[in-house]
Amino acid sequence: MEVRDLTLRFGGVTALADVAFDVGDRQICGLVGPNGAGKSSLFNCVNGYYRPSGGSIRVGGVDVLSVPAHRMVRLGIARTFQHPTLQPDRTVLDNVLLGGHSTLSGTVLSAMLALPGERRRERALVTRARELLDSLGLAGVERTSAGDLPYGSQKRVEIARALLSGPRLLLLDEPASGLTHSEVGEVGELISRIRADHGLTVIVVEHHMGLISAVTDHVVALVSGRKVAEGTAQAVQSDPVVVSAYLGAA
Ligand SMILES: Nc1ncnc2c1ncn2[C@@H]1O[C@H](COP(=O)(O)OP(=O)(O)OP(=O)(O)O)[C@@H](O)[C@H]1O
């Protein structure tokens, strides 16, 4: 992914100002910064929720900003949210299958008529969803209502939902927030394993510096919408501008 001169304004607020960085293929990039730094805004630009005021974002050479938001999944971009956005009354399996919906190539008519090709694709999707749940340690809960799962498991279901679309770029928004200490360690292992198993590029927004240090190849720090540091997790965490921004926000 290549981000160049990315600028996003909301009226008088500049959420992102001339942000530029690259994320290499199959890298895990951490995006850090105090509250209001612009991390979520950047994710929202990458997956088409926000239209930047200027600059460019290219993923796999494709200009993301020229693609309508509903086509982002086909571009290979998927994301999770800080607070899981599951349908609580639907089963875990149904929730994961929602992530594969846009990959079905059949028309509405063929789905309504339940044509054989469509049924085959649906069956393949269910098989894939079950494999993903299994690989994320959720094999026993596919028929449970998503809202009945513990918070940490709901976050994993969201990851499974994102993976079902077969992304090349996965955006993880605060995967460790609200988790216990031991769950944070497990999420770190999970992120590394997902990259290895799925050959993905991952960008992870996270305040938990232990997780950032454990999983990332490269870290970008934003403060007040500007990139202030970039490099290894260790270098960024000891950067004086980053340290003083976090202290100021504490
Ligand atoms: N839809 C919006 N309308 C107006 N201002 C917004 C909107 N979204 C974000 N902002 C502003 O843009 C700035 C960056 O916010 P953003 O949520 O991207 O920061 P963040 O780094 O993700 O913070 P946090 O860690 O608290 O989630 C803030 O000043 C915020 O108030």
Automatic annotation (TrEMBL):
InterPro entries: AAA+_ATPase, ABC_AA/LPS_Transport, ABC_transporter-like_ATP-bd, BCA_ABC_TP_C, P-loop_NTPase. One of its GO terms (molecular function) is ATP binding. The keyword S-adenosyl-L-methionine does not apply. It holds the Pfam family BCA_ABC_TP_C. PANTHER family: ABC TRANSPORTER ATP-BINDING PROTEIN (PTHR45772:SF4), CONSERVED COMPONENT OF ABC TRANSPORTER FOR NATURAL AMINO ACIDS-RELATED (PTHR45772). This is ABC transporter ATP-binding protein. Residues 1-249 form the ABC transporter domain. Keywords: ATP-binding, Nucleotide-binding, Transport. One of its GO terms (cellular component) is plasma membrane. It comes from Planotetraspora silvatica. The keyword Transport applies.
